[in-house]
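Bug report (template v2)

What were you trying to do?
Predict the complex of my protein with oxa(dethia)-CoA.

What happened?
Run completed; filing so the output is reviewed.

Input:
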Amino acid sequence: MGSTIIGCGKSLPALEVENDELKALVDTNDEWITTRTGIKSRRIAVDETNADLGEEAARQALGWTEGGYAERRIEAGEIDLVICATVTPDVVVPSAAGLLRRRLGLDNAIAFDVNAACSGFIYGLTVAETMIAASASNVAGAAGRNPIKRALVVGAERLTRLTNWSDRNTCVLFGDGAGAAVLEWNEERAGILSSFIVNEDDITNALTCANAFDAPQPFDKDGISLEAAAAGDPALPRTDEEIGTHALVEAGRPRQVLYMDGPKVFKFAAEAMTTAVRQAVERAGITLDDVACIVPHQANERIIKYAAKKLGRPMDFFQLSIAHTGNSSAASVPMALADAYEQGRIQRGDKVIVVAFGGGFTSGAVVFEA
Ligand code: UT7
């Protein structure tokens, strides 16, 4: 018995931008981007919102529309929980999950967001699975909690709205999209076998984005002050210092764009991915030989190659969806998972690993039986 993935879907915005087109913005070329990352093009949400993308992916996962994979149609009233993993919600309140709940008419569901950067879907899956398992178990207090039998877990991002389009080190990497999965408690099937999630302090601030909340505030230390509203947020420089955005601010750049030290993140990512896979496999009480395929975060094909070598597995053991999506943060794993199902890579009973790493630093893996 366990929480089983019974549906999966994905959605991409309409605009596709090829590598060479980015030459109009920065000094780059298709050859560099392809060989360094495996990316050929990315999708950019110009007209689509985070909720538009999430809604379409969810509809597929629920079996309401063509595309993705759905064992059967799930009715709106059957979903008890919606979790949306995102760092780019359309608005602060309501949550992205709350908007999806409204749009899809999931009236019985509780809904909230998870921010664990690119690992968000792995964290969301783990939270959902834990809540479902707690609700199904006989542990003390289970009866006093919200009964959760089915969950919709979505990863939806418009990362290109945080991208610094004048920085060639980062702007060629990112894309937008959404992916979704439906989890259901099943007495007969094993479903999720294990989860390993871990945080590590990004001490050198190798991956940050301030996106400060700096609405004019008419107060100073003594109380109401209309002058203070015009003066701006005195606490902001401390935040900039803390998360490393001061260098951008000093250089006159907007603080809401994403900053990344690529080589540092690369090093962290390569190790984090292999560690998470090994730990999750061990926790599941199986070996890598029992696993049909790994669906990794699509950040850079070279990171996946490094992990493949370390884990002693060929590249075709890994789902590769990066070529035409780029890195779509929390949407990347569920989109790649939908691809794996659509391409027939995952059959009933197969053991599969989803794994990701991201800003924070966060990382983790989930092992499940399809
Ligand atoms: O989702 C989690 C977050 N992100 C990641 O997982 C990303 C992790 N990091 C990476 O994927 C890689 O570090 C990058 C793809 C970002 C960069 O690849 P790299 O092999 O580490 O290259 P580099 O940063 O060491 O740069 C090599 C050279 C530099 O030129 P010089 O200093 O050697 O003359 C860069 O200025 O490549 C240059 N460069 C570019 N050239 C053409 C950097 N970006 C570009 C570009 N086009 N877009």
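What did the reviewer find?
Residues 27 and 168 are 7 Å apart (CA to CA). The first strand starts at residue 2 and ends at 11.
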